[in-house]
Amino acid sequence: MASSTVPFLPTILLAVAILVVTKLWSNYQWHRKYKFPPGPKGVPFFGNMFQMPPYHQGPWAKKMAEKYGEMFTIKVADNNWVFLNSSRVVNDLLEKRSAIYSSRPPMPYASSLMSGNCRVVVQPYGPQWRALRKIMHSILNIKNAPTFAPFQDLESKQLVYEVLQKPDMWWKANQRFANSVIMSVVFGKRIPDKEEGNIRELFNTSQEFIMALQPGANLVDTFYVLDKIPKPLKWWRGRGERAFKRLLKVYSTEVEDLKRRMSEGKCPPCFATKFLDNPETEKLGHAQMLFALGSLMEAGSDTSRMTLSQIIAAAATDSRWVKNAQEELDRVCGYAARLPEFTDRPKLPYLSAVAKEGFRWRPFAEIGMPHMLIKDDVYEGRYRFPVGTIVTWNSWSIALSEDEHQDPLRFWPERWLDPFIEGFGTKERKEIGEDEGARKALEDPLNGHWSFGAGRRVCTGYHVGDTNVWIAAARLLYCFDFQEVKGKPIDTMNMNVAEHRAAPFEVRIKVRSKQHRALVERVGGEVIGVRY
Ligand code: HEM
Q1: Is residue 414 pLDDT above 60, yes or no?
Q2: Which among 530, 480, 497 is positioned nearest to 166, based on CA atoms?
Q3: Residue range 220-259, pLDDT digits in tens
Q4: Of the chain's two ends, which shows fewer C-beta atoms within 10 Å, N or C?
Q5: Judging by DSSP bridges, how do beta strands 79-84 and 71-76 pair with one another?
Q6: CB of 507 within 8 A of CB of 484?
Q7: How many structural domains are present in the chain?
């Protein structure tokens, strides 16, 4: 026995030695070729995986930025993540070099298995993603605002009515508003009360996807080597395939219902009616068509809800700006005379500044969203990034940096109106209406912050998101006062606005006067029970 194994031993040892040397040599070559910004030291195999908190990573990433400067690198398993910590570098890389910085990292479970590679948010940069984005953009752009405005008008009327009826349940009202607006925008169908049947399923699938995106939820999305094991050993496969089938069924049911309502002339114009009418849509294929609609639902609901929650927290914790907002609203709409309308927007610059500040103040995509580099790149002669590098903008850190914004922690709408505060415009003290730079910065929802992302990957629905938040905030502030609850101060640096099953914080909401109450009851009465 022994004699037969002995001759093999040197051969095996030699083979192992060759493998080790080859690996060391290729590592050496790789490290000579590429150079990343500095970052915290990690551990073998896992890298810095256990240093980054699984949730609320903003404060951690801000600390890292304070230590390492405009960029830092961490390693998560085999992937290098480069964090961009200033607007300057975000502009240089994600914006100006968008053609190569706009893919997404592979996600064998969340994107491939569970979403059939059809979920736009996690789709790689390529012809399929480009074709889809093009159609989405053609429908969601500002020219179609009049298609979506009636939905936002109606739902925000119901929002103020529900807040009046049950102020403690403001967070539920907020959630219904956001879900119903996006359901109407995408499928031309309201959610007048709570979600039921297929609509409930539809929102459940979004939650399932959000869970699948959480760090470590599916090991194969972090440790790609697992994707190479034989199919029968992939313990997550069945679960992913079932999820995919379930999604197709839920989306198909909704599209069948849509088609029925369209044929009966009962469906108002919306994203889906325009999408299905577009000859380009058919070329996308059936699954992609279904997922396009589903992806918009999941990208567009929680985002509006969370921004509104943050504006409510800001109102309760700082009455200075609320007073200014209410003064402007009363001047334009009269005292409890009528609700603010979209047509008032040019006369309500302070309210536009409130919405913009709501996006900047505490960005909920705290460490941005991963963009993946598709070609080797050199930055400022100092750094050489290989294809596959994951690059993200450090959203929380940039928004709360004193190098970027004056008094960054403060919810201060004035920063968007006074060119002296944020440093845009002509630098002469002029009224907002007279200062071209300040006016343009105010009107462009993307200007001044990175909360909608960057480059070609920027949020497709930012006009809808901006108008959702604007109309809801304008109407809430016109009708109500907001205060912290005694003994329960709101910690605005640690609000869990992602929480949808309970109030993320306690707040006291009081109608401003008897006349406001009467107004809200009247408009509420007009919309409760409206169905389409
Ligand atoms: C209300 C506030 C909203 C915020 C703050 C927000 C924020 C974001 C962010 C940060 C991204 C990632 C961008 C990047 O990777 O660079 C994104 C992507 C996206 N958003 Fe929004 N969003 C909002 C509303 C909406 C709405 C209302 C819709 C749909 C009508 C929408 C549809 C999308 C889609 C489809 C993507 C994926 C884009 C891609 O990967 O190509 N979003 N959003």
Answers
A1: yes
A2: 480
A3: 999 999 999 999 999 999 999 999 999 999 999 999 999 9
A4: N
A5: antiparallel
A6: yes
A7: 1
Cβ(335)–Cβ(515) below 8 Å: yes
Give the structural domain span for 269: 127-527
Burial class (CB in 10 A: 0-12, 13-18, 19+), 42: middle
Q: Which atom of ligand 1 is nearest to the CA of 133?
A: 41
Q: Please give the structure tokens belonging to residue 259.
A: 């088609």
Q: What is the DSSP letter of 196?
A: -
User: For residue 1, what pLDDT band results from cuts at 50, 70 and 90?
Assistant: very low
**How do strand 377-379 and strand 371-372 relate by DSSP bridges?**
unpaired
Decide if 495 contacts 504 (C-beta within 8 A).
yes
199 within a domain of the structure (yes/no): yes
Q: What is the CATH number of the domain that holds 464?
A: 1.10.630.10
Q: List pLDDT tens digits, range 298-347.
A: 899 899 999 999 999 999 999 999 999 999 999 999 999 999 999 999 99
CA distance 308 to 300: 13
Per the confidence metrics, is the pTM higher than 0.90? yes
Q: Measured in angstroms, how far is the CA atom of residue 174 from the centroid of ligand 1?
A: 19
Residue whose CB lies within 8 A of the most ligand 1 atoms, among 185, 209, 303, for a mutation test = 303
Residue 479 in marked binding region: no
Report, in this order, helix, strand and coil percent for the chain, each rounded to 5. 60, 10, 35
